[in-house]
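User: Please write out a complete single-protein record containing the residue sequence and its fold in token form, without commentary.

AI:
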Amino acid sequence: MLSREEYLAEWSRWHGGTDPAASRLVHGWLSLAYALARSVAWLPPLAATALGLGVALAAVGPALAGGAWLVAAGLLVGLSGLLDSLDGALALAGGRASRRGYVLDSAVDRLTEAGYALTLWVAGAPGWLAALFGALCWLPDYLRARAGQAGVAETGAISVWERPTRVVMTALTVGGAGIVAATGLAEAAGVADGPAVVVTAGAAAGAVLGVVGTAQLGFSLRRALGD
């Protein structure tokens, strides 16, 4: 199995030369995925991919139940993100990376993000806001894919709205709403539907980050396309 430094270099090669050290969150997230991959090196990357998708979709159930169950939904979202990164770490560090797996992993990422948007919606966020959140999860990677088809080898600078940020925002938003529901903080503060307020605020914050991140990426790709 590759060392952590070799794994990060391989990740960079598969992502257009992007340096993971440019973002502490991305670097830390990848390092955690590598540590997990070392402990389950026997697991096929495809199994981790399928498990990550299943866990992401499973979060919809406790989110629909509401109340303290939202904590479980948040934990499932976070776990799904780790499993998604685990499959890449298993493939890259274990020498099992392939173009087919790379494309499949990207497709599953989009499906899990649709699951995150659905989780936010059933947890109390307005439908239009949850849809916007999901669209802004998809848009940066769509732009990168189209730029690649146009001949741009780089994937653009790491923005404030990369995959780890989307996972963390969703998990903290839903889980935080569950904590509010379980502790009765909203009622004590005189807020009628505290969990829904928390979910709506979190989804809105994520959408703002999505707009900023997409703008960052757009400027980066604009320069590359101009060249």
